[in-house]
Design brief:
Blueprint: H1 8-27, E1 42-44, E2 61-63, E3 66-68, E4 72-74, H2 82-98, E5 101-103, H3 108-112, E6 130-136, H4 146-156, E7 160-165, H5 167-172, H6 183-193, E8 198-202, H7 209-217, E9 222-224, H8 233-240, H9 244-252, H10 260-270, E10 276-278, H11 285-294, E11 298-301, H12 303-309, H13 313-332, H14 339-342, E12 348-350
Parallel strand pairs: 4-5, 4-11, 5-6, 6-7, 7-8, 8-9, 9-10, 10-11
Antiparallel strand pairs: 1-12, 2-3
């Protein structure tokens, strides 16, 4: 299935890394400590007379050729280990019930070890959702090419491919891949040769205006900013570290990244025409509303769903229903009957700095 050949030691390293990351994320406080999303710096001017009926508020959104009941994506989280199979299927079942989108975790484990394929496959429980395949963009400098990208899409029946960027995390890993030289050109080649949309996503440090502009210029179909303020992968790598020096280095970068709110506005300036996904610390429907008002087209949510998905699909549905209800009330109280009315709303105001 793939011409990438790994020995058993490398496969075990991949497997061990995924198990450690999932365990840490589920059982430790890995949120940013000194950086927030920046969304709390904004508030909506309350509209006491919105002149609309709450029942008329339409949260539906079009994204990459599919209609979602709300502008929500269950962000990429896990894959490659047995526990990931249950989590991904619970997330996918919830996405199907709610009419939302979902991404799977990095499929590097599958490309390197095809026996892990079932941990990513969810189409049998979610035949209709907008589904994203996912690979690390840096792997294009480590033997991957269009064939591996196409395979990642095909084996899960995905509608699009996410190529994620995570230079800080890779630099902190003893096993990290840190050669990003010439990577933009390889992303461009991938975009040109794949028949599905290619979205580029950070994993918690944000996308700047310059990076967004460069990505837009080479034909990416969308950008997910994944800004700072939510789960910190530097914190996860600090917990994984076995040596004090490595832990200290990871701690130095605990506040590294562009806050999500700033990254949304930067990326929108850099890529004004591209679909823009806001993720990184999105926790409530009010966060989603603020992100849309700042210029995003959809929002990605991960951490609030992970523990629920480790149980079953039902609690995931409960969390998603709560978030959508909060979004609907936010729209109602700003007089926005649709997301089009909410986007770039003049009622979203930045608090004055003292």
């Amino acid at each position: 299935m793939s011409d990438i050949i790994l020995d058993n030691t490398a496969k075990q390293t991949n497997h061990k890394r995924k198990e450690e990351q999932l365990h840490i994320a589920l059982n430790n406080d890995v949120a940013f400590k000194q950086v927030s999303t920046g969304l709390e710096d904004y508030y909506f001017v309350h509209n006491a007379l919105p002149e609309i009926d709450l029942s008329q508020v339409d949260t539906s959104a079009g994204l990459f050729g599919k209609t979602l009941s709300a502008p929500l994506i269950i962000s990429s989280m896990v894959g490659g280990i047995e526990e990931a199979r249950r989590i991904n299927r619970n997330l996918a079942e919830a996405a199907q019930i709610m009419g939302l989108a979902m991404g799977v975790g990095s499929q590097r484990c599958f490309i390197d070890d095809p026996s892990t394929i079932s941990t990513y496959q969810v189409r049998d429980v979610a035949p209709d959702i907008l589904l994203f395949a996912n690979l690390g963009a840096v792997q294009l400098n480590y033997g991957y090419g269009v064939a591996q990208c196409r395979l990642a899409v095909e084996v899960i029946g995905a509608d699009a491919l996410i190529l994620h960027l995570n230079p800080v995390q890779e630099a902190l890993q003893s096993e990290g891949n840190t050669n990003l030289a010439g990577l933009l050109r390889k992303i461009e080649q991938t975009c040109a040769k794949l028949t599905v949309p290619v979205i580029v996503k950070e994993v918690g440090c944000g996308i700047s205006e310059d990076v967004a502009r460069r990505l837009a210029s080479i034909g990416v179909a969308g950008i997910d900013v994944a800004g700072a303020g939510g789960t910190s992968w530097t914190e996860i790598e600090r917990y994984r570290a076995h040596h004090e020096v490595t832990r200290n280095v990871a701690a130095t970068f605990a506040s590294w990244g562009i806050p999500t709110a700033d990254s949304i506005t930067m990326a929108r300036r850099g890529a004004p025409q591209l679909p823009l996904i806001a993720s990184g610390g999105i926790r409530t429907g009010l966060d989603v509303a603020k992100a849309i008002a700042l210029g995003a087209d959809a929002a990605g949510i991960a951490a609030p769903l992970l523990k629920a998905a480790s149980v079953s699909a039902e609690p995931v549905v409960g969390v998603l229903q709560e978030i959508i209800h909060e979004l609907r009330i936010s729209m109602f109280c700003t007089g926005a009957v649709s997301l089009k009315k909410l986007k770039n709303s003049p009622l979203l105001v930045r608090k004055k700095r003292e």
